[in-house]
Every structure is written in structure tokens, then in C-alpha cells.
Specification:
It contains seven helices and no strands. With 170 residues, it is an all-alpha fold. It has two domains: 62 residues; 85 residues, no CATH class. It is elongated, with a radius of gyration of 19 Å.
Length: 170
């Protein structure tokens, strides 16, 4: 998944601050692209084409270099955290009667694990249409609720672990 607009703005802001404080670092576009290519050790044509993971890596490096603390993520309250942990599990039947739509964060988490597996949207579709999918018994195999997102994420996590590709991300 490509860089989010918030990450793009953060990365550009941090880079411009970094360029002003470091000697020999240019503020022009070519200097930014060269810097990102060196840090990631792979060709970068534009900040807009970075993955979320690559952008996060660059942002973390800039924050460390500038001594900037990362903004705190908003924490879930107790009931939200309970729901996030149980929704979609066999022991989470208390939420079955009150389905909750999947959030952007739920879908981003699935996207991150797809990147670890090296899958694209077609790979996910193939998995969801297969007999091994947690949504296999449905005619409409779309991820709509938090429960669906959790079931799919846990299945993909097991696949990544079995292939030795699992790494926990923030």
C-alpha cells in the first residue's frame, strides 16, 4: 500500500527540517530522492510511490536524527480494546449481535501483512475465494466488519508465521 497523505506530509516536513540542520544536504527534490534511495537501498522515483513501511522507516530515521519524539498514537479505551481483541473469535460471541464496520486501521493492518507475504489485491482475492478462507462459507466474501477483518488478519498471520515471514509491525 502506498504512503498515506499524513505520512507524506510528515516525511516532507521532517526532511526539510533535516536539510536545514545538516551541512551538505540539499533541499531540492533531487537531493530528497537521492537521500531516500540511499537510506532504503533501492531506487526511489518519488516520495508518493513509497510504501507505508518504507515511509515509516524514513520518518523514524529523520525523527531520531532530529531528536523529535514520535507523536503518541491514540489508545483504545478498555471496551474498544476488548472488542478489538475478541470480535471475530469463537469466544467473542458477545459482539455478534452488534456488528461494527471495519475501520481504515483494520484494513491497513491487513494490507501490511499482505506486503509481508508479497501479495497484491489479486492474491488476497484468491485467498478469500478459496476453501481455506475464514469467509469461505459466505457467498459474498468481502471484508465488511471488524469481525471479518480480524478473522482474515489472524489467518494471514498464521500463513506468514508458517512461511517464516512474520514480523510484528507497529
Amino acid at each position: 500500500m502506498n504512503i498515506s497523505p499524513a505520512q507524506l506530509a510528515r516525511l516532507q516536513t521532517l526532511y526539510s527540517q533535516y536539510a536545514r540542520h545538516e551541512i551538505g544536504v540539499g533541499v531540492d527534490r533531487d537531493s530528497r530522492i537521492r537521500w531516500a534511495t540511499e537510506r532504503l537501498r533501492k531506487p526511489v522515483s518519488s516520495f508518493k510511490n513509497l510504501t507505508m513501511e518504507d515511509a515509516g522507516f524514513l520518518i523514524d530515521g529523520l525523527q531520531t536524527a532530529l531528536g523529535v519524539k514520535a507523536p503518541l498514537k491514540q489508545r483504545l479505551n478498555r471496551s474498544q480494546a476488548r472488542r478489538a481483541g475478541l470480535d471475530g473469535r469463537a469466544d467473542g460471541t458477545e459482539f455478534k449481535d452488534e456488528p461494527q464496520m471495519a475501520t481504515a486501521a483494520d484494513l491497513a493492518r491487513i494490507q501490511r501483512i499482505m506486503e509481508q507475504l508479497g501479495w497484491n489485491d489479486a492474491g488476497l482475492r484468491k485467498f478469500l475465494d478459496s476453501e481455506r478462507s475464514p469467509l469461505a462459507k459466505r457467498s459474498n466474501k468481502q471484508i465488511r466488519t471488524t469481525s471479518d477483518a480480524n478473522k482474515v488478519w489472524w489467518a494471514l498471520k498464521r500463513i506468514a508465521q508458517s512461511k517464516g515471514l512474520w514480523r510484528k509491525t507497529a
